[in-house]
Amino acid sequence: MIKNISNLGDAAIYCDFGSEVNEKINLNVINYFYSLSELVLENKINGINNITPSYNKLIISFDLTKTNYSEVKNVLIKLKIKDNLRNNHKNIKVPVCCADEFGLDFKRLSDKVKLSKEKILELYLNKEYFCYMTGFVAGMPFLGDISEKIKCERLETPRVKVPKGSVGITEQFANIYTFESPGGWNIIGNTPLKIFDKLDLKEPALIKPGDKVSFYQISKDEYINWNE
Amino acid sequence: MSNTYFEILRSGVNTTIQDSGRNHLYHLGITVSGAIDQRNYKIANALADNKLDDAVLEFAYQGPLLKLKNGTINFSITGKIFFNIIRQNSKIEEGICYKNYILEDEDQVDIISTKNTAYGYLSVNGGFKLQKIWNSYSTNTKANIGSNNGRKYSIGDKIFIKNSYPETIKEKAIRYNESFDNIIRVIKGTNFDYFSKEAQNNFFNQEFSVTNLVDRMGIRLKGLKIENIVSSNIKSEGLVRGVIQVPADGNPIIMLSDHGTIGGYPKICTVISADLDQVGQLIPGKTIQFKEVSLEEAQNIFKAYTENTNKYLNECD
Q1: How far lies B24's CA from each of A122, B119, B139, B272, in Å?
Q2: Does A111 lie in the same domain as A209?
Q3: pTM for this structure?
C-alpha cells in the first residue's frame, strides 16, 4: 500500500510504496498503475497526463489547467485497487546470442564474480525474471532479480555507445537496450528480437511492467538468420 | 489535393515538428516531447488562425531556410527571432515576430537566429500534412517516433502543407512584451534532505550558469558543488518536466520535454509550471537563481501565467 503521498512540483504526485526493491512492493505499484490507468482510459478522471510505475514509487503527472494536487490525491485515496495483473501478465521468452562479439563484458564479469562464462550463463539462463518497470528510453525493461552469485556493479566508465539489442546486467537487475545508447551495464549478449516496435501502435513495448521474462541461448547462425 | 510544400534549403540546428506533447506513454518509456516553450507555440498557432494544438515547426538557435513551392500560404513566427522573407523578385523584407504574413509561391523564409533565447516557432495556416502517432505530431528524435519518421529535418526534405491558398484570414499582430528576470521559482523536491544544509542554502543563494550541455532533454547547470550527504543514487523512479536532479558531481540538471522517463539521481527541487517556458529558453552562459515557493503559491502563479497567455491568445482573434 502507499506509505506516503506528496507533491512533485505543482503538476505531479509522488506515491511512495517503501524503500526496498522486491516483487511484492512492485506488484503493489503496478496494480495501482493499472487500476488508475483504467479510470483514465474510461475518461472517469480528468487531466491525468502520465503515470509512471517504478520499483517502489508511482508518479502521476497532470495538466494543471484541468486539475490539481488535492483533486488527484482524493482520487488516489478513494481508488479501488484491482488485482487485475495476475490475469494479464505475459510470459516472454527472449533469445540471446552470447558469442564473444556480443558478450562484451564476460571477461570483466568473470574477474569480478570469480565464475567462468559457462557458469555465469547457466545461472543467468535458468531463471524467470520479473519486469519491475519499462522506461528511461522507449521499451527498455528492468528485470530482476538475477542470481546473487553474478551480481556486479556498473562499469567504472560507461560505454559511449551500447549496441541496440544488448542484454546487460548490473546489481540485481537485467535489461535490454532497445536503442543504441550510452550505458554502463555489463553486456553479456545480444537479442535479435524486436523489444520495441514503434510501428506496432497498439503494443509497441514487448515487455511491460509485471510481465515474466526468461532468456534462452541461440547460436550466431540462428541470430543472423533470425526472422520474426 | 494541395501539393504545396516547404523545401528545406538549410536545415538549421534542430528543426522538428512539435505540438502540445504525447501523453499516457511514460510507463513504456516514451517521453512527452512537445514544444519546449508552450506559450510561444500556442501564440504562433493563434496568429495563423489555427487550433491551438496544431503542429508547428520548432527551431533552435539557427533556424531553417525554407522555400515555398506550389502555392500561397499564411504563416506566423513567434519567439525572439531574426528572420527575413526573401520575395521571388529577390526583395528582402525584415521579418517581424508575432504577426502573420502571406508567403507567395517561390518566396523564402530565412530564419537566421534566435536572439538570446533557444527556441522559436513557425505556424502555417491550415497546418502541415502530417499524421498523429499516439495522438501527437511531436517528434521524439531519441526514439525516432513521430513526424518525419522521428527525425529532425535535413537539407532537401519537404514539409507538405494542407492549404494551397490561405483562407481569407485577417492580418493579425500582437505586441508581445515579456521580460525574464533570471529568477526560477521551484518547489522543494522529494530528496531535498539528501543535501547538506550548506548545499541547500547555496542552492537558493548562489547563481548557477547554464553550461554548453543543453538540449531538448535537459539543461546542465554549473555552480558551487551541491554536496550530497546521503547517497548520490536513488532507486530509479519516474521523472517529469522541471525536475532538478543532482548527480554525484554536484551540478544540477533540469529536465525538459525529451527527458528520460525514469532517472536515478536525487531530486533536489522541481521548477514550477509557470516558469517552464522561460527555463526552456535558457541558452549557454546565462545565469539563473532559484527561489523557493509553496505549492499554493505555485498554483496561483500558474493561474496568473495562464491568464496572461490567454490575454495574448485573445488579442489574436
Answers
A1: 38, 25, 16, 21
A2: yes
A3: 0.95
Chain B positions contacting chain A at CB under 8 Å are: 23-30, 32, 133-134, 140, 142-145, 150, 187, 189-190, 235-240, 242-243, 260-263, 267, 270-273, 295, 298-299, 302, 306
Last residue of a domain, one of A59, A87, A115: A87
Q: Give exposure, B62-74, as e/b (b: 16+ Cβ within 10 Å).
A: bbbbbbbeebebb
Taking each continuous run of H as one helix and of E as one strand, the counts in chain A are: 6, 13
**Among partner residues A51, A137, A196, which is closest to B260 by beta-carbon distance?**
A137
Residues A82 and A12 in one domain: yes
Q: How far is B295 from chain A (nearest CA, A)?
A: 6
- Helix, strand, coil percent values for chain B (each to nearest 5): 20, 30, 50
CB-based contact B144 A196, cutoff 8 Å = no
Comparing CB atoms, the residue among B27, B298, B299 nearest residue A52 is B27
**In this complex, do B235 and A21 lie within 8 Å of one another by their Cβ atoms?**
yes
Query: Do A164 and A123 have their domain in common?
Result: yes
What is the tens place of the pLDDT at every residue in A36-68? 999 998 988 999 999 999 999 999 999 999 999
Helix (H) or strand (E) holding B296: helix B295-315
Query: For a pLDDT cut of 70, what percent of chain B falls above it?
Result: 99
CATH superfamily of B183-314: Cyclophilin-like (2.40.100.10)
Enumerate residues 165 to 204 of chain A having a beta carbon within 8 A of any beta carbon in chain B: 178-179, 196, 198, 201, 204
Residues B218-248 have pLDDT tens digits of 999 999 999 999 988 899 999 999 999 999 8
Of the residues A87, A118, A147, the one at which a domain ends: A87
CATH 2.40.100.10 boundaries in chain B: 183-314
Residues A71 and A125 in one domain: no
Distance from CA of A118 to the nearest CA of B (A): 30
